[in-house]
Design brief:
It is built from 16 helices and nine strands. The chain is α/β, with parallel strands linked by helices. The protein is globular, with a radius of gyration of 24 Å.
């Protein structure tokens, strides 16, 4: 059975289980099962390569012990084992010994994980399908990695879970422009499903990693955090698929929950690649971790403030921010002033509203800046939807090749030879200051009044109605389940 066929058949089986309700639960269920299979396959390989290696998972809880036999435990006995043995013990897995970091990864993945499936017979069918994938086979792992990317993309239609996925065309472009190298400390403080991390890893392996020592230095220099369970689990599994043996650097934590001033010089980083959550508010009290002049509950603003602080001198960053972060008074204006004074904000790529559809249909921007010198001028580049296409969508997403024209204009690593044209323009920092530090600047080449495309507006309305219908259905299911308990 091919990997793609296996994944499709697994999803079809899960749809038959009354306990799994909606895409987010199905993806979560799929993820912890694949996670344990990947860990078990890696354990098999590590036992061959490393003398004295022992899996941090107790023998009776390892995938091979309860899942690998197609005629093994099933029905109510399997459900009981998962709910009363597997999950409780992995949630409390001891983080000790030679494999402490690997144990910490496993424990963090299961901290808030849940088994949604209620039918032991269906669980057995699922694990038998999963057993058809050998994650020690390079070709199978690479193929599954492509399919896993599609699973992550499916999150865009799974309610609010779409906020954790940044289109791979965007993450790959940003990683390439920032150009990380092995040994440089790279941070994503709100890593979601790990897209920036995996793109940075791929970038370094293709260009700079020549020896096992290079690979080791790269893995030891990665830093990340994600506060919500599902994207954290997806991120760790994603990194395992990308050959990271022990992604214990991915903390299951809210980076903003730590006091702003507590970050020391030793904790500064060389690179930040991130798409902080936007459009939401942090829980009450988080703003008290920040200085008075930066106090706000706007998530994207808090992350931008923290990113500026965490960068080392000459450190560089690429960050996704919504239009609303580029204008406004109060904290927003003070934050932009700080950014321009402490960093060289050399480039802003303005993206069309449809890039993050259907999760969000708002304008977003890619900000590129370097710490240590004040901004003298900001280059703006307007990225447009390809000719013949009215908007990006689930079926026609933004891809890395769509940035080729921008890359040609960029001017290499030193950004030399940039010219103004119908898509690119520059603004002096003096003009920006005179305009209240407003960075929400439109392309001066577009002289005519801009009206939204009626087809795009209608598509937005249709997608909003679909999401509302899905939310109503989900709410009805929750209420029905509560009543029948």
């Amino acid at each position: 059975m091919s990997v793609r066929t296996a994944v499709r058949s697994i999803q079809d089986i899960m749809r038959q289980d009354v306990g799994v309700d909606g895409d987010a639960q199905r993806i979560s269920q799929l993820c912890w099962m694949f996670f344990l299979k990947i860990v078990d396959d890696q354990d098999t390989q590590l036992q061959m390569l490393q003398d004295g290696y022992e899996s941090p998972i107790p023998a009776e809880l390892q995938w091979r012990a309860w899942a690998s036999d197609p005629e093994g435990i099933t029905g109510e006995s399997l459900v009981d084992f998962i709910n009363t043995q597997l999950f409780p013990r992995l949630k409390e897995l001891p983080v000790t010994g030679r494999q402490a970091s690997r144990a910490r990864v496993i424990r963090s993945v299961f901290e808030d994980a849940y088994n949604y499936m209620r039918s032991g017979q269906l669980i057995r069918q699922v694990v038998n399908r999963i057993n058809s994938v050998d994650f020690n086979d390079l070709a199978a792992r690479q193929h599954f990695g492509d399919i896993y990317e599609q699973v992550l993309n499916d999150l865009q239609s799974a309610g609010n879970s779409g906020e954790y996925y940044t289109p791979r065309g965007v993450t790959a472009f940003m990683a390439e422009r920032v150009d990380p190298k092995p040994g440089e400390v790279l941070l994503d403080p709100a890593c979601g499903t790990g897209g920036f991390l995996t793109c940075a890893i791929r970038h370094m392996r293709e260009r700079y990693i020549k020896t096992p020592d290079d690979e080791k230095r790269m893995q030891e220099s990665l830093r990340a955090a994600e506060k919500k369970q599902l994207p954290h689990m997806l991120c760790v599994t994603n990194l395992l698929l990308h050959g990271v043996e022990s992604p214990s650097f991915v903390l299951h934590d809210n980076t903003l929950a730590r006091p702003y001033t507590s970050y020391t010089t030793a904790e500064r980083v060389d690179i930040v690649l991130s798409n902080p959550p936007f459009g939401g508010k942090e829980e009450s009290g988080i703003e008290s971790n920040f200085p008075k002049h930066l106090k706000t509950r706007e998530t994207a603003d808090l992350f931008l403030a923290l990113i500026i602080r965490l960068l080392r001198p000459k450190g560089r960053a690429a960050v996704v921010l919504p239009d609303v972060s580029l204008f406004g008074e109060g904290v927003k204006a003070r934050l932009r002033e700080q950014l321009l004074e402490e960093c060289n904000l050399h480039t802003i790529i303005r993206l069309p509203n449809s890039v993050f559809r259907p999760y969000a249909s708002i304008g977003t921007n890619l900000l590129f800046f370097e710490k240590g010198e004040p901004t003298k001028e900001v280059w703006f580049y307007e990225h447009r939807v390809p000719a013949g296409q009215k908007a990006y969508s689930m079926s026609k997403p933004i891809r890395q090749g769509h940035f080729d024209e921008c890359i040609s204009w960029w001017g290499g690593s030193n950004r030399n030879g940039r010219v103004e044209n119908d898509k690119a323009w520059r603004v002096s920092v003096e003009d920006i200051k005179a305009d209240g530090f407003n960075l929400d600047l439109k392309n001066p080449a577009n002289r005519d009044d801009e009206y939204p495309d009626p087809d795009v507006v209608q598509a937005d309305l249709d997608q909003t109605e679909e999401r509302l219908a899905a939310l109503r259905s989900e709410l009805f299911s929750i209420l029905r389940e509560a009543v029948t308990r």
